[in-house]
Amino acid sequence: xxxxxxxxxxxxxxxxxxxxxxxxxRAYADYAAGRLEQAAAQYRRHLATDPNSTxxxxxxxxxxxQQARPGEAAHWFQRSLSADPSNAVALGGLANVxxxxxxVSEESRxxxxxxxxxxxxxxxxxxxxxxxxxSRWAEAQQAYFAAFSRDAGNPDxxxxxxxxxxxxxxxxxxxSYYARALDAAAARPAVFDPAPVRARLQAxxxxxx
Length: 209
Fold this sequence. Notes:
By secondary structure, this protein is an all-alpha fold. The chain folds into two domains: 77 residues, Serine Threonine Protein Phosphatase 5, Tetratricopeptide repeat (Alpha Horseshoe), CATH 1.25.40.10; 103 residues, Serine Threonine Protein Phosphatase 5, Tetratricopeptide repeat (Alpha Horseshoe). The protein has eleven helices and no strands.
């Protein structure tokens, strides 16, 4: 007998993910490679066509942080929040460059942000910094670890986690995370200065406290 005709092919239609604009792709690639001036130029170019792009605004804020220009960083993060008031990257960045006068209210706001966006490492990192400013190192360590667990290659998350462990006298773990922070900083831009980190790592390796 002749073969049965093939049955209908059932397919599920899917919507392709939105394509990242080329300027943003180039900007992120430059940023990840440490080419901060080129990245900033690409982000600014993108803003010329999309002034409310939170990706570009946050990128310029992050670059200003890397280059130790906190006032400029705050400007870009504030513009990002004007475009998207719940943007975790901008909220976390602004909390880091412009700490609140009232640490209790700042902590409450950051905890609420983290509850709303639990997968945002920036919120956990900002909370860790707020707790560290109060010398609440055990809680800060937990927040830094949460940030690290969501972005394990971020050198600043690794560094601050190491500092919190150092403060808690967990020197073996601190030594490990200092070393990982230095390794990560060779691949991605970092805010921290590597020189004192190397010195502290050397002291810990020699049994210092």
